[in-house]
Amino acid sequence: MSYQALIADSELATRQSIRFYLEQAAGFQVAAEASTGPEALTALLHHRPDVVFVNLHLPRLDGFSVLREIWPYFQPQVVFLSASDQPMLLALEESGVPYLPKPFTELQFHQTLCHVKTNLAQPQSQETIDMLMRLLVSEEPPTKPTYLKRMLVKDNHKLFFIKAEDILYFDADGNYITLHTLKRNYTLYESLTQLEQRLDPADFTRINRSYIVNLNYVEELECYFNGEYLVKLTGGHTLKWTRFYRDNVKTFLAKNR
After folding, report:
1. How far apart are CA 226 and CA 243, in angstroms?
2. Residues 18-68: pLDDT tens digits?
3. Which of 53, 88, 167, 194 is most exposed by smallest CB count within 10 Å?
């Protein structure tokens, strides 16, 4: 079995060393390289590699920020690279997350790669995923709940972001969700319930089992049958706010006092 790897480091020499060692090892192929945080983010979401070697201090978007962005979509095996962050390397060592101090020797690389192979041979446990998530969060302790400011979408083999403020509503149908904007629609592949937890409840609310609407685009509520409402949105869309979710009407009313 061959595993796909991605290398994200600003130094060409480091990327070349890792590529060389991986090509010498059985069972690994380098899917892509990146020298900046945005490049790493785009490559990760495009290739979805099995393992990523990522520098903690990538230009323009650090390694932790890159992982925070992709973590809701998939969780690769991670090997951190760092030349100077000794406290963080100590924390990584204590947590059992693979890492390589820069510069690293061939022996250090192969010891780390053995660790990675062991992890790849078995599915990541929830404990491992939670532990990595705690590391990501601990690097930027939130003073309040953090919600999506933008969403990554794919269209015609291109990846780009849609600002949350530009989203009209989400429409779930089976295993996919349609993201609606005033200009066009995009397809997402995730649970509406999971998505709801990542949206700011001050702006987005669930109105029935299939729809989440951006309250900023609600133009009118019309009383319907049996305590339900018809929701009229900017752009001419009309959706039904069902009885099961009518408690969420309070959010809309509070927002518009």
Report:
1. 7
2. 999 999 988 999 999 999 998 999 999 899 999 999 998 898 888 888 988
3. 194
- From the list 146, 148, 144, 153, the residue with the least C-alpha distance to 181 is 153
**How remote is the C-alpha of 133 from its chain's centroid?**
11
Report the C-alpha gap between 200 and 222 in whole angstroms.
Answer: 24
pTM assigned to the model: 0.56
- What are the chain's domains? 3-136 (3.40.50.2300), 150-255 (2.40.50.1020)
* Contacting residues for 36 by C-beta, under 8 A, at least 6 apart: 10, 58, 59, 60, 61
Helices (H) and strands (E) in the chain, counts: 8, 15
pLDDT tens track for 192-214: 888 888 899 889 999 999 999 99
Amino acid of residue 198: R
